[in-house]
Amino acid sequence: MASQVTDRVEGLDTIPGIQRKARLQAINVGSREMFESMIKSIVENQLRPAIDRVSFDESLEALHY
Fold first, then answer.
1. Does residue 43 sit in helix, strand or coil?
2. Rounded distance, CA 61 to CA 19, Å?
3. Residue 26 predicted with pLDDT over 60
4. How does the average pLDDT of the chain come out, rounded?
């Protein structure tokens, strides 16, 4: 016997997603405390991206860098 989901989210119609066989996947991004600790470390150590901008023509070269 299949169980019935009773929780509802206002404004969310799941039927179109089911009909299109959509896949919903969650991700784990860590806690707010972890995020704040990361930002503090970035600021204190003056970290900067290795590649800050790349033109479309240089994207493959940048990817292999």
1. helix
2. 41
3. yes
4. 83
User: Rounded to the nearest 5°, which phi and psi values hold at 7?
Assistant: -70, 140
- Single out the residue of 60, 36, 62 nearest to residue 50, CA to CA: 62
Count of residues for the chain?
65
Look up residue 7 and give its amino acid: D
Burial 8-38 (b: 16+ CB within 10 A, else e): eeeeeeeeeeeeeeeeeeeeeeeeeeeeeee
Token output for 38: 């990361």
The sign one gets for the Cα dihedral 14, 18, 21, 23 is positive
Q: Quote the tokens at residue 29.
A: 């991004």
Are the beta carbons of 51 and 65 closer than 8 angstroms? yes
- Residue 21 pLDDT exceeds 80: yes
